[in-house]
Amino acid sequence: MSEANLETMRRQYEVQARDGGLLPDLFAQDAEWMAAREDPDAATHYGVDGIRAYLDQWFGAFQETEFVVEEMVDAGDKVFSWIVFSGRGPRSGVPVELQQAQVATFRDGKIARIEEYYDRSEGLEAAGLSK
Length: 131
Prior knowledge:
Blueprint: H1 2-19, E1 27-34, E2 44-46, H2 47-60, E3 63-75, E4 78-88, E5 95-107, E6 110-117, H3 120-126
């Protein structure tokens, strides 16, 4: 099951890297996506439509975006990912880069919840991987 979870996240991240979108069939209908608390728009987004709107807003706020998954770790019913996102402000052209942990929780083979953390150690702890 864990390899299947990793493959599900790989598929989702491929779509995010390409166009900021999501594959709805990979998510539970009642899925939640919790933006990092440090995010100016920190909130929990509910359901596939809410998550899609969040990703559209996020990726739409930048130009020349790049989304790179540097690491993915199997944690049973969770997957820890370390992400690097970069882009440019649409008006200012100012470059932006952030690193972020994402912890995906699976239920019945689908993504039920994603939590974002700007602090790597918090993400590892949330995934049950801290020492």
